[in-house]
Amino acid sequence: MRAKRSKKYRKLMHQYELTFGFHEPYQVLVDSNFLRAVHQFKMDLIPALERTLQGKVKPLISKCSLAAIMAAQPINPRTNNPFRPQHLPPPTILPLRHCSHNDDDTPIDEVECLLSLLCPNQDTMRNKEHYTLATAEPVALGHDDVNSDNPKKRKHAESLLEERNQKAAALRSGARSVPGVPIIYVKRSVMVLEPLSIPSEKVRLGVEKSKFKGGVEAALDVISGIKRKRDDEEEEETTTKTTTSRDRGLKKAKAPNPLSMKKPKKREKPKPENQGKTGDKQKSRESQDDGSNGQNDAAELNADSSVKKKRKRKHKSASAKAGTEATDTAHGQGQAFDE
């Protein structure tokens, strides 16, 4: 059960942090009834508060609460000052919260003092200092004659106790009316953290709705920004297309490709010393060229003359044929005779 309660309190304080800006160490205003209940149930003040609020705490007591505690104590006859109560921790554990409600700094009623600290301005109704209220139901004091045999004393003590109960109820109801005030109270030796009050819940819902609206508006802004970017990009594309089409329509004289051009040969200027030599060399080269050209021409003529023309064949007459045949036969007989 303690684990479930601590988890619940942790979530509750997280809501106070998100909605009202609470942070550690939490400032806790304690009243006189709370200190009496803690002492009565033998509880450690700071560890118990840290377990309840799930974080580091800084307990504080107002000057008017301290005056109310000391006023309820009997007076020491030696010093004419009230005795220091046992349920009041030392200032190192429970420092004093100075409050000035009037010019002469006289203390006022404890409930009015605590409510003024929780909500300084009644118009804004805001817990500016992020205080947490720690209170408890009033306990019968040592000098109260609640169990007295005298009915008058018993009745007077009961009336005082009822008055303190009314003041405690008024303190808690006044703290609930201020949004953003966590309330701790002691009930049967257990510290309890009250859930969010109705005004605090309304503020929390309003903050969540505003965050939701802000998130939706931010999302819409992002979407509209994306659309604007797209429109701008489209406009840029159209402008670039128009400029490129205009550039294509105009024909400009282009330079030749330097890679396709033939590189010019570098001519070295002859030195004055070698001018005569170069002239002789050129003449000898020219004479050689002329000789070679003449030889080539002669060779070409010889080649043309060596080529014989094709002789046309002439037909012989009949008498000539007979004469040639007779000579051929006589020549053949002579060769046979020789053999």
From TrEMBL:
Keyword 4Fe-4S: no
InterPro entries on file: Fcf1/UTP23, UTP23_sensor
Domain UTP23 sensor motif region residues, every copy: 251-266
Residue ranges with Basic and acidic residues bias: 270-288
One Pfam short name: Fcf1
Biased composition (Basic residues): 308-318
Keyword Nucleus among record annotations: yes
One Gene Ontology cellular component: small-subunit processome
Spans annotated as Disordered: 229-339
Keywords, comma-separated and alphabetical: Nucleus
PANTHER family, alphabetized: RRNA-PROCESSING PROTEIN UTP23 HOMOLOG
Protein name: UTP23 sensor motif region domain-containing protein
